[in-house]
Automatic annotation (TrEMBL):
The keyword Chloroplast does not apply. This is HTH tetR-type domain-containing protein. The lineage of its organism: Bacteria, Candidatus Blackallbacteria. One of its GO terms (molecular function) is transcription cis-regulatory region binding. InterPro entries: Homeodomain-like_sf, HTH-type_TetR-like_transc_reg, HTH_TetR.
Length: 251
């Protein structure tokens, strides 16, 4: 019997196999670290022949890039959907307050993704902060193409904050990069909680946002209101529980 490899059933099975490989690779990276990840170890974990993996991904680079693109796509959907929920929830807010609320929430989402999807977050974080060139230029460009909507979304939020006078005039592109890099720089400090019980990581997170927002012109009264409402909003939507694609094991 001859099987049509391009039939809907065959294509669906192939996609399911790719998803399984990606999910298992994420688990392995979380266990062994990105530096310890190899196609041989992945094949061993899945009880596959190494050659079988290369039928779905032609190289380790291709697999890592596919993983990153998928994660970025999921994160992007999460940011956009939560932003829409935020705008619906706070229609009675002033435009200034809404602008601050949306930016603060975007940062909260990113930081909490670490708890919701640790292996996905770890891979993305390592790809961003590692000084090593993990991907080839060709694969890296494909990943960057997927990352651009996220960066544009953050820039749009900061532009909106300037237009509504929540922030004073400034370069939205520069501010988005400062905000992004500041949040990334904060993450390693969370490890101190392993050695110093009760280490106030969350208060540092709040202090960082307050410092940046104040420096860009946000009023103290608006910041106070946004901090309170942000916590209420996160609890009211069960935070990320509705975004099932982000949870570990959902792939």
């Amino acid at each position: 019997m001859i099987h049509n490899i391009n039939s809907p059933r065959s294509l669906r099975k192939r996609e399911q196999k790719r998803e399984l490989i990606i999910q298992t690779a994420l688990e392995l990276i979380l266990e062994a670290g990105l530096a310890g990840f190899t196609m041989h170890k992945l094949a061993e974990k899945m009880d596959y022949a190494v050659g079988a993996l290369y039928r779905y991904f032609k190289s380790k680079d291709t697999l890592l890039a596919a993983m990153q693109r998928q994660i970025l796509s999921e994160f992007s959907q999460c940011f956009i959907q939560t932003d829409l929920l935020c705008k619906e929830q706070y229609q009675d807010f002033s435009q200034k307050e809404l602008a601050l609320q949306r930016i603060w929430l975007a940062v909260e989402i990113y930081l909490n993704l670490k708890k919701q999807a640790p292996s996905k977050f770890y891979l993305l974080h390592e790809m961003i902060v590692s000084p090593q060139e993990i991907l080839s230029l060709q694969e890296g460009l494909l990943v960057m193409k997927e990352a651009l909507p996220l960066l544009r979304h953050l820039q749009e939020l900061l532009t909106f904050a300037t237009e509504t006078k929540a922030f004073r005039e400034g370069n939205a592109n520069q501010r988005s990069l400062l905000l992004w890099s500041s949040v990334q720089g904060l993450l390693p400090l969370e490890k101190l909680g392993r050695f110093v019980p009760g280490y106030p990581f969350e208060s540092l997170q709040t202090a960082l946002l307050e410092t940046l927002f104040s420096a860009w012109g946000a009023s103290e009264s608006s910041l106070k209101k946004v901090k309170i409402e942000n916590q209420k909003f996160i609890k009211s939507i069960g935070f990320l529980s509705q975004f099932s694609t982000l949870s570990e094991g959902a792939s």
